[in-house]
Structures are given as structure tokens and as C-alpha cells.
Write a structure and sequence with these properties.
10 strands, 4-stranded mixed β-sheet, mainly beta, Immunoglobulin-like, 4-stranded antiparallel β-sheet
């Protein structure tokens, strides 16, 4: 079971094992976003919103095992309508804008 920790007003979930996988649903006008992060963001709840909107969606940065046994840290938004999104700031990390294309996976590194 995960333990929740609150730090600097941002939600942080900790003590999780590497994720076993994510189902990404893309095609047509639907894409996905992978936010690559560092170990320091493991368990962080990150948010995005369409540019010009206040509607938010969130995901959690998790340790993810990749082929070969390496572990990476990433938050995955598996199904997003194409368009421009703002990755909202977290702690000391600034906001950034990303563009989601239908039928594709966009990667952003923080």
C-alpha cells in the first residue's frame, strides 16, 4: 500500500514498486503524453490542462521498469484529445507547454 506524504503543498505519493505497464489509447484525434522525470519526482502528482482552459487532469510519476530491467520515472497521460497543453508547475519545476498530436505519443522531459 502506498504512503501519502505532503511536501511544500504538492501531493507526493511514495513507497511504490515499479509499474508493470500502461495501456495507451491513441488514434484519430487522440494522443498520449509521457512526462519523463527524475527519481526526485517519484510519487509526485502532476497536472496538465488544455491551453486557455482551467480544466485539469492529473497522473502520478511512477518508477517504471523498461525492457532490460532498467527503471525510469515517468507520468503517463494515456488518452488526450489533440491540442496544446500546459504541464503545470510542481515545486521548483516551471510550467511548460506541449503539443499532443492525434495517433502519437508525445514525450516531455522535466
Amino acid at each position: 500500500m502506498a504512503k501519502e506524504v505532503w511536501e511544500k503543498g504538492d501531493r507526493l505519493h511514495s513507497e511504490r514498486r515499479p509499474s508493470e505497464g500502461v495501456v495507451i489509447e491513441i488514434g484519430g484525434s487522440i494522443g498520449a503524453l509521457v512526462v519523463n522525470a527524475t527519481h526526485a519526482l517519484d510519487g509526485a502528482e502532476i497536472e496538465i490542462c488544455p491551453v486557455g482552459s482551467t480544466s485539469r487532469t492529473h497522473t502520478i510519476v511512477r518508477a517504471r521498469e523498461v525492457p532490460g530491467g532498467a527503471v525510469v520515472y515517468a507520468g503517463v497521460f494515456p488518452s488526450l484529445p489533440a491540442g496544446a497543453y500546459t504541464v503545470l508547475p510542481w515545486g521548483e519545476l516551471p510550467a511548460a507547454e506541449v503539443r499532443i498530436e492525434g495517433g502519437a505519443v508525445t514525450e516531455f522531459s522535466w
